[in-house]
């Protein structure tokens, strides 16, 4: 319980996971509100069975986005097409689908495969034609032809999902991102595991295993490093670890709390919570020089900083008003103002990539929910209906939030769309999962 547990602990003592789809996403709400889309099985133009079905991955991606609801492939009016040239608009006249994705996979030799796809505009295909029949190529919203190896099938399918999502919504797709999280399995000798996986739980890899708690993983802006808190030396210390070379450095090990690290937007600094001078206060740390700058100075607890996208301000959780609430501090002037007032507690805030909203944990009537506030109107919306929700992490395109919650007495991860309509749960097979952190857009 990254936020709630840590906060409760702060109040008491001033201190504070193999290649497998471990995160089996279960969609719980919101499919009915999604936009219908058709994804045809990609035509296999080879001998025997296709190595993998790209369309299955694309359908899963679009479904998990909460924005689209692919129709049953058995209900497709046309089967076996892979180009707009074979598309018959009359066959699709009675559907409400707005776009159709078709494609083909063909062996190319030397372990390579030629993959083609086209995204067909079904809305345009149904418009009255005044100048004769519409040229099929005018229905194509997007198309591509590439050579890939079998090992690239899954990542290329995510790339197709990104292009379809952006073409139909105008928002960059986030299907080639990753998440970091902590798995706790007390049946293991070293029960704490820092894991990273694709956003959908595939390609899970363990970055670190420890007998002592690991917490608060957070991505660097370039997606190549993680900062996190480790108690492996029987005290809270902050490390930064390269996820490719596994090399890591200890960046903060002052007396008392060393917690809640978060990279600045340019990746050159960390904001973190230190209690080396008594009370938990916010600091910024220049990673290259290790120079510390104290941001807050108050007798109450200040913690859980998050950066505004311009890097000029932080939000943080403080109980200087008597209860945990979220405040904003201007780093140049040091001026602080309170951001939240509704509910009993508000804590663990993050700013959306566009800087327009804040996502945080709200406690009302004793229940912890994920909430979003429009920063211009101050309107607050409760996004989740579960309880004991914590550790919200926003997708880099700002459309979804992944967070920790409790399901059947076990800590799991869940996801909710930014409008609260779509919800999914990500249970884990062994142990419990917590402290999720969604990566930025990745360039590798």
TrEMBL record:
It comes from the Bacteria. InterPro entries: 6-blade_b-propeller_TolB-like, Tol-Pal_TolB, TolB_N, WD40. GO terms for biological process: cell division; protein import. Coiled coil: none annotated. The keyword Cell division applies. Belongs to the TolB family. This is Tol-Pal system protein TolB. It comes from Parashewanella spongiae.
């Amino acid at each position: 319980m990254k936020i709630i547990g840590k906060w409760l602990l702060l109040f008491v003592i001033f201190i504070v996971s193999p290649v497998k789809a471990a995160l089996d996403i279960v969609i719980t709400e919101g499919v009915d509100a999604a936009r219908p889309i058709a994804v045809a099985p990609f035509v296999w133009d080879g001998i025997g069975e296709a190595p993998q079905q790209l369309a299955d991955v694309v359908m899963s991606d679009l479904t998990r986005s909460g924005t689209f609801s692919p129709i049953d492939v058995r209900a497709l009016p046309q089967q076996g097409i892979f180009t707009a040239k074979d598309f018959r608009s009359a066959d699709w006249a009675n559907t409400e689908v707005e776009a159709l994705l078709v494609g083909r996979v063909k062996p190319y030799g030397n372990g390579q495969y030629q993959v083609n796809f086209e995204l067909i505009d079904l809305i345009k295909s149904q418009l009255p034609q005044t100048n004769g029949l519409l040229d099929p190529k005018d229905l194509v919203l997007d198309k591509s032809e590439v050579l890939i190896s079998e090992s690239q099938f899954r990542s290329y399918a995510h790339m197709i999902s990104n292009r379809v999502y952006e073409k139909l919504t105008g928002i960059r797709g986030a299907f080639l991102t990753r998440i970091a999280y902590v798995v706790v399995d007390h049946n293991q000798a070293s029960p704490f595991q820092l894991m990273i996986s694709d956003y959908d739980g595939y390609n899970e890899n363990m970055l670190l295993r420890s007998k002592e708690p690991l917490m608060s993983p957070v991505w660097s802006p370039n997606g190549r490093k993680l900062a996190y808190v480790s108690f492996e030396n029987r005290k809270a210390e902050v490390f930064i670890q390269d996820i490719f070379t596994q090399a890591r450095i200890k960046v903060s090990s002052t007396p008392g709390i060393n917690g809640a690290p978060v990279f600045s937007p340019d990746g050159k600094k960390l904001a973190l919570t230190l209690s080396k001078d008594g009370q938990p206060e916010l600091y910024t740390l220049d990673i290259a020089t290790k120079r510390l700058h104290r941001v807050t100075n108050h007798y109450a607890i200040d913690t859980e900083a998050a950066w505004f996208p311009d890097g000029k301000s932080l939000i943080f959780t403080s109980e200087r008003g008597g209860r945990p609430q979220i405040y904003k501090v201007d780093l140049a002037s040091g001026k602080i103002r309170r951001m939240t007032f509704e509910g009993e507690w508000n804590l663990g805030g993050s700013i959306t990539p566009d800087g327009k909203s804040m996502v945080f944990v709200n406690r009302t009537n004793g229940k912890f929910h994920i909430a979003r506030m429009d920063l211009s109107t101050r309107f607050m919306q409760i996004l989740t209906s579960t309880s004991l929700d914590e550790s919200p992490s926003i997708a880099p395109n700002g459309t979804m939030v992944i967070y920790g919650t409790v399901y059947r007495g076990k800590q799991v991860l869940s996801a909710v769309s930014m409008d609260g309509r779509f919800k999914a749960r990500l249970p884990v097979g062994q142990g419990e999962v917590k402290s999720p952190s969604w990566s930025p857009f990745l360039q590798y």
